[in-house]
Write a structure and sequence with these properties.
about 450 residues, mainly beta, six-stranded mixed β-sheet, globular, binds CU-O-CU linkage, binds copper (II) ion
């Protein structure tokens, strides 16, 4: 068989053209796949993880504010998955919640995500299909949206804080992801903590160097309590949203699961002197989560307090006083339990719920029900009172919109998307329901979310 010259030429001309057109359409890929990564210290076995692009954490995505981000999720796992872009005030269809905003992407399937980035700040992305297991196995990464005028810093470092529960003998993820013990208590805590996939993460810096540290808590359940050593710092943003005024770091930084904090820090330690990001361990001792090795001196002298970051659009929450307050009681869990809850359309007592692996309720609803907790007209100011009647802290996260805490004196707290509520405490949040769609409101201790602590709202 031979090609005529004509057919051969047509073929040659046709192929590259078709390829070019296709390449233009296709977004960069983000492949969810198994990989082997050394999480435990050298000498221990490596760990089989589920990853984005073979890395722990997934690739750092950076894009300018106001741009459009697109990624083709390719699912090379053996289980269905989706990607949630945590903290982005996103088009609802791109929110990545399997069963609510899209169907889960089957093994071998793909899904094109494309959405605008209205806000600059520190965000992240993670699996939102069986997220309890998928995030624990490694499916998360940082999403950084850059200001057009970045602050005056010498370096910008992203620090993804995580923990892993590993079997030291095999290197495998230990324990049962369905474990009722973990779900009904504080959640799945790791036995190894680390940053950016490394238990021994470290930085080198010079004295007087000014760093922007973007801290992201991607752990399933761990609340990190942090301190700076050999550095002076200011908090400039929470959950991606700039503070009106940078706040000097004078106390511990409490970072609940899914929360972010942007710090601007000046290295004050001299060469050889200790500098670190310290984390409080279970025994209350302070351990270096990130060691900072100080090598020499930056030519610049110590600088004064940093200027605030430029504000993002739509950061005001007007009309809070007149807004209807809806109460969301948080109940259940070990030690306290609850009388009853509604699960899959049926009222059940606590025993019946426990038999189904359910331990928690939000406003009497156990897990996402057919009806939303509340429906809002577009543009309406929403106000929700979250009361924690459980024996555990919970990190409550709202999708699609950021909120502010309503303070006693009628003032408002910083704008954020995840709020830690301690046992027996309560908080009122308010937000402008300006993003149409179906949005989850759930605990970001992912074992809690998987065993009842998930509800949702609808904005018309
Ligand atoms: Cu970080 Cu429901 O998400
Ligand atoms: Cu919780």
């Amino acid at each position: 068989m031979s090609f005529t010259r004509r057919a051969f030429c047509a073929g040659l001309a046709g192929v590259p053209l078709a390829r070019a057109a296709w390449a233009q359409e296709e977004a960069p890929r983000l492949t969810a796949r198994a990989a082997t990564v050394q999480l435990a210290p050298e000498g221990y076995p490596a760990t089989e993880v589920w990853s984005y692009d073979g890395q722990i954490p997934g690739p750092q995505i950076r894009a300018p504010q106001g741009s459009r981000l697109s990624r083709r999720l390719v699912n090379a796992l053996e289980v269905p998955t989706t990607v949630h872009w945590h903290g982005i005030r996103i088009d609802n269809a791109m929110d990545g919640v399997a069963g609510l905003t899209q169907d889960a992407v089957p093994s071998g399937g793909r899904f094109d995500y494309a959405f605008d980035l209205p806000d600059a700040g520190t965000f992240w992305y993670h699996a939102h299909t069986n997220s309890m297991e998928q995030v624990a196995r490694g499916l998360s990464g940082a999403l950084i949206v850059e200001e057009s005028m970045p602050p005056d810093v010498d370096r910008d470092e992203v620090l993804m804080l995580d923990d892993w529960l590993l079997d030291p003998e095999t290197g495998r993820f230990a324990g049962d992801f369905e474990s009722p013990m973990m779900r009904s208590h504080a959640g799945r805590m790791g036995n190894l903590t680390g940053i950016n996939g490394r238990y021994d993460f470290s930085l080198t810096a010079q004295q007087n160097e000014r760093l922007r540290l973007r801290l992201i808590n991607s752990a399933n359940a761990r609340i990190f309590v942090l301190r700076l050593e050999g550095m002076t710092g200011w908090t400039v943003a929470l959950d991606g949203m700039p503070l009106a005024r940078p706040e000097p770091v004078t106390a511990e930084i409490v970072l609940a699961p899914a929360q972010r904090v942007d710090l601007i820090v000046d290295v004050t330690a001299e060469q050889g002197a200790p500098a670190a990001l310290l984390s409080q361990a279970e025994d209350d001792s302070w351990q270096a989560l990130a060691e900072v090795t100080v090598t020499g001196q930056n030519s610049r002298a110590a600088r004064g307090a940093p200027a605030p970051l430029p504000p993002n659009p739509r950061m005001e929450v007007p009309g809070v006083t007149g807004a209807q307050v809806r109460a969301m009681r948080m109940e259940g869990g070990a030690m306290r339990g609850m009388a009853s809850g509604r699960f899959e359309g049926q009222d059940m007592n606590f025993q019946q719920l426990v038999q189904r692996g359910q331990f928690w309720a939000l406003a009497g609803q156990v897990g996402r029900g057919d009806a939303p907790f509340a429906r809002y007209a577009r543009g309406e100011t929403a106000r929700i009172r979250l009361a924690n009647d459980t024996a555990f802290p919970h990190a409550m996260h709202l999708h699609g919109m950021h909120f502010r805490k309503v303070l006693a004196n009628g003032r408002q707290g910083p704008m954020r998307d995840t709020l830690l509520i301690m046992p027996q405490d309560s908080a009122e949040i308010a937000f402008v329901a300006d993003n149409p769609g179906k949005w989850l409101l759930h605990c970001h201790m992912l074992g809690h979310a998987a065993s009842g602590m998930t509800n949702w709202i609808e904005v018309a």
